[in-house]
């Protein structure tokens, strides 16, 4: 399969075109989750995909506005820093995993140019419909991050932004990203972290537990989603632990750097070159 035509790698019985989105069969993530959730988190890890799907479906329309407000307008700078770590100028094929509303994919478009191909995948169709209105040339695919519908050694680089803590199996997602990467290609992960300095760490915790849920609820109208967000950040592995997960997933030369007093971290890993 040619990565510049990503639908070619999907089973023909599982592909349709609607509103410019390629559709891969996505396992039952549309189920009712009322009986499988606790306050601010899924009751079991096996329920996580269903829980996250429901949460992002509920907040899709206000998601970008809330990101800008809750990050104090730092989110765009974070995305630009993520794209710069790929070091791509085009023409290349780049994958954005869990692309959501397409903001990171849009930054990738700007970086790699018109002769390149950007592909964004997500398992939440309302988020992809929002993305369709914001991107120019990115190919959007409804699919899961743990079973990417692309052949091995297909992309020159890949990103995942503020999504790794939402997947049921981080290592499996990272292994899939590594699998579809060409040898020597980079995988870049942008994710929330926790400040190391005690004062900043305390202020950050106060903001996550007291301010963020209230603002998110008032603007989105969904209380549960913004109870989940701070808990998912606080329970996410440290930067050092995530580095180890990426290495177990087969990436090498993994490094990371913090932004905005340690509120977010960017991890960069490289797929091993063939001998």
What is the secondary structure topology, with strand pairs?
Elements: E1 17-18, E2 21-23, E3 37-38, E4 41-42, H1 48-59, H2 63-70, H3 75-86, E5 93-97, H4 103-112, E6 117-122, H5 125-132, E7 139-142, E8 155-161, H6 170-179, E9 181-192, H7 198-220, H8 225-234, H9 239-248, E10 251-259, E11 264-271
Helix pairs in contact: 3-4, 7-8
Descriptive overview:
With 275 residues, the chain is of the alpha/beta class. It has one domain (34-196, 228-271): Rossmann fold, CATH 3.40.50. The protein has 9 helices and 11 strands. It has helices spanning 48-59, 63-70, 75-86, 103-112, 125-132, 170-179, 198-220, 225-234, 239-248; strands at residues 17-18, 21-23, 37-38, 41-42, 93-97, 117-122, 139-142, 155-161, 181-192, 251-259, 264-271. Strands 1-2-7-6-5-8-9-11-10 form a 9-stranded mixed sheet, sandwiched between helices. It has a two-stranded antiparallel ribbon with strand order 3-4. A hairpin with a 2-residue loop joins strand 3 and strand 4 (41-42). Helix 3 packs across helix 4 (103-112) and helix 7 (198-220) runs antiparallel to helix 8 (225-234). The protein is globular, with a radius of gyration of 18 Å.
CATH architecture field: 3-Layer(aba) Sandwich
Which sequence of strands runs across the widest sheet?
A: 1-2-7-6-5-8-9-11-10
Q: Low-confidence segments, ≥5 residues, pLDDT <50?
A: 7-16, 25-40, 42-46
Averaged pLDDT, please?
87
CATH fold descriptor: Rossmann fold
Number of helices: 9
């Amino acid at each position: 399969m040619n990565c510049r035509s990503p639908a070619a790698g999907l089973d023909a019985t599982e592909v349709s075109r609607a509103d410019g989105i390629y559709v891969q069969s996505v396992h039952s993530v549309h189920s009712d989750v009322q009986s499988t959730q606790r306050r601010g988190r899924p009751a079991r890890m096996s329920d996580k995909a269903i829980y996250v799907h429901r949460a992002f479906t509920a907040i899709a329309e206000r998601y970008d506005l809330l990101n800008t407000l809750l990050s104090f307008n730092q989110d765009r700078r974070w995305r630009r820093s993520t794209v710069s770590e790929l070091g791509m100028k085009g023409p290349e094929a780049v994958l954005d995993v869990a692309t959501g509303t397409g903001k990171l994919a849009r930054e990738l478009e700007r970086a790699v140019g018109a002769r390149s191909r950007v592909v964004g995948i997500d398992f939440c169709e309302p988020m992809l419909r929002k993305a369709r209105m914001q991107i120019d040339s990115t190919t959007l695919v409804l699919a899961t991050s743990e079973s990417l519908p692309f052949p091995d050694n297909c992309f020159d680089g890949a990103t995942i932004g503020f999504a790794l803590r939402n997947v049921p199996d981080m290592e499996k997602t990272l292994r899939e990203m590594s699998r579809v990467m060409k040898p020597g290609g980079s995988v870049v992960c942008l994710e929330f972290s926790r400040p190391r300095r005690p004062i900043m760490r305390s202020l950050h915790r106060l903001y996550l537990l007291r301010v963020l849920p209230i603002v998110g609820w008032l603007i989105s109208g969904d209380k549960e989603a913004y109870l989940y967000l701070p808990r998912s950040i606080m329970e996410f592995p440290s930067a050092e632990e995530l580095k180890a997960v990426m290495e177990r997933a087969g990436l090498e030369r993994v490094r990371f750097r913090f932004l905005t007093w340690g509120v977010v971290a960017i991890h960069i890993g490289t797929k091993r070159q063939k001998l």
